Amino acid sequence: MYSELAFLIVSTTQVVLIVVAVLLLFGGTKIPELMRGLGSGIKEFKNASRDGGATKKTDEKSKVGES
């Protein structure tokens, strides 16, 4: 059973190769911007899931006001 999932195990060498590939593709200056955007997206998702329907109500009110 565990041998079927063996390909999901990531070794240290694979992590290093992925990090090097990302550095080569995006460069050192672009990575902080990407991580900042990812962090704000996660934060927005958490806030939206925590608020529940509150964001839908405010969106509906703003659409009514625009008409």
The count of DSSP E runs of length 2 or more, i.e. the number of strands, is 0
Taken as a percent bin, the fraction of beta residues is under 5%
Which parts are unreliable, with pLDDT below 50 for 5 consecutive residues or more?
none
Mind describing the biggest β-sheet? none
Radius of gyration: 20 Å
As a percent range, the share of helical residues equals: over 70%
Question: Helix-strand pattern, N to C?
Answer: HH
What's the oligomerization state? single chain
**Would you tell me the overall average pLDDT?**
80
Structure description:
There is one protein chain. The protein starts with 11 loop residues before the first helix and ends with a helix. The relative contact order is 0.05. The radius of gyration is 20 Å and the shape is flat. It contains 2 helices and no strands. With 67 residues, the protein is mainly α.
Features:
67 residues; mainly alpha
List the helices and strands and how they pair.
Elements: H1 12-51, H2 54-66
Concise synopsis of the structure shown:
About 80% of the residues lie in helices and about 0% in strands.
